[in-house]
Design goal:
- The protein is an all-alpha fold.
- It has 2 domains: 70 residues, no CATH class; 226 residues, MetI-like (MetI-like fold).
- Helices cover 72% and strands 3% of the residues.
- A two-stranded antiparallel sheet has the order 1-2.
- Strand 1 and strand 2 form a beta hairpin.
- Helix 8 runs antiparallel to helix 9.
């Protein structure tokens, strides 16, 4: 073994754990923390002073220290300076985004849990093929999949032609640009994000607990509801987070499948940034949305950690 090999072996032996952990931390620093702080800096910038995210926040002029922070970008999210009333555009769009994200999460859980349960209970030889079918949509472009649903749901689409051919209706049904089409597209796109965490949790479920429940006289439904569902709670939470968080800021699906009244927060941020060319307000809106999502998640994570510590101490 050469001296170089001995040196690297010694380094990995003594600092291997640090080197392994530094990779994800470096990734988070470069691709999450740095863009976040740049966005935060732009959100407190005055449009008239330019959009340099590296400009100094604290400046000294003739011995007087001043802060170059424009917090009115955040105030304008809640208060309309012209009318003096509550800013309804941002609050209503955010509440509407919460509603659609919640409904999408519930629909994905409703359809995804039985499928994940079926995957976990299927034969080991069949599981790889079933998992491949779940992940197969990821091999196609996201935009192509959304446009495909647009082609299916349009007035001259396949579904309307089929309904007219079967005699169900004599005229094309309006299935596009409404709540149903948007929820259908969002549920289809984000369903795998619910199925995969649930499958990973259910496949590791101890079958002896189910057998013990049946031996104690529980019906299959009671076994499922009182044993399987509580033991898969971590998978439900993980899948719900993976669906709810991206749905909250979704932009493409509401723009292509939703109507004009389905103005979600992602579209509002896009309009502020590219139509109104107001980057500071758009950045403030994005920061407020991020904080509104991260704070409840941090509270929930702290609560779960505290419960786990209490269970271990007991």
């Amino acid at each position: 073994m050469t001296k170089a090999h001995e040196f690297f072996s010694r380094v990995f032996l003594h600092h291997g754990r640090t080197l392994v952990l530094s990779v994800p931390w470096l990734w988070l620093l470069l691709f999450f923390a740095t863009p976040f702080f740049i966005l935060l800096r732009i959100s407190v910038t005055d449009m008239g002073e330019g959009l340099n995210p590296f400009a100094a926040i604290i400046a000294s002029d003739n011995g007087q220290i001043s802060l170059h922070l424009k917090l009115s970008n955040y105030v304008s999210l809640l208060h309309d300076a012209d009318s003096g009333w509550l800013q309804t555009l941002y609050t209503e769009s955010y509440l509407l985004s919460l509603k659609y994200a919640l409904w999408t999460t519930l629909l994905c859980l409703f359809f995804g849990y039985p499928f994940a349960y079926f995957l976990a209970r299927s034969k080991a030889s069949v599981r790889p093929m079933l998992l491949l079918m779940v992940m197969l949509p990821f091999w196609t472009s996201f935009l192509l999949r959304v446009y495909a649903w647009k082609g299916l749901l349009t007035d001259q689409g396949i579904i309307n032609h089929l309904l007219i051919f079967l005699g169900v209706t004599s005229e094309p049904l309006q299935m596009l640009y409404n709540d149903v089409s948007m929820l259908l597209g969002m549920t289809y796109v984000y369903l795998p994000f619910m199925v995969l965490p649930l499958y990973a949790n259910l496949v590791k479920l101890d079958q002896r607990l189910l057998e013990a429940s049946q031996d104690l006289g529980a019906t299959p439904w009671q076994t499922f509801w009182l044993v399987t569902v509580p033991l898969s709670r971590s998978g439900i939470v993980a899948g719900s987070m993976l669906v709810f968080i991206p749905c909250l800021g979704e932009f493409v699906i509401p723009s292509l499948l939703g109507g004009a009244e389905n103005l979600m927060i992602g579209r509002v941020v896009w309009d502020e940034m590219f139509s109104s060319n107001n980057w500071p307000r758009a950045s403030a809106l994005a920061i407020a949305m991020i904080v509104g999502v991260v704070m409840p998640l941090a509270w929930y994570n702290q609560r779960v950690t505290r419960q786990a510590e209490q269970e271990l101490s007991a």
